[in-house]
Model the fold of this input.
Amino acid sequence: MTTHLHPDERQRLDMLRTALTHDFEVHTARLTQLTADTGDPGEAHTRSALIAATRQSLDQVTDALRRIAEGRYGVCERCAAPIPAERLEVLPHARFCVPCQQKHAG
Done:
């Protein structure tokens, strides 16, 4: 699918891939920092929550990068309809269109 893209679409995906790769690197560095033992037991609960959130972000970024590589990026995983560009701008790791996301979360 990505081999037949319009040059503007290919450029947009390349820019998105670069941004997601940067996000991946930032989250990986943060996870490394968070998992370093500071020895302060009072921070353990907060650190655990931050680690879980960072891991979730890493998973979302990784999945988005995989969908780009496989040519499936921007297509709803439930109904196979295109996900609007506006939604992807706000939520680049979106897996579902809005109606399907509402059904998935509801």
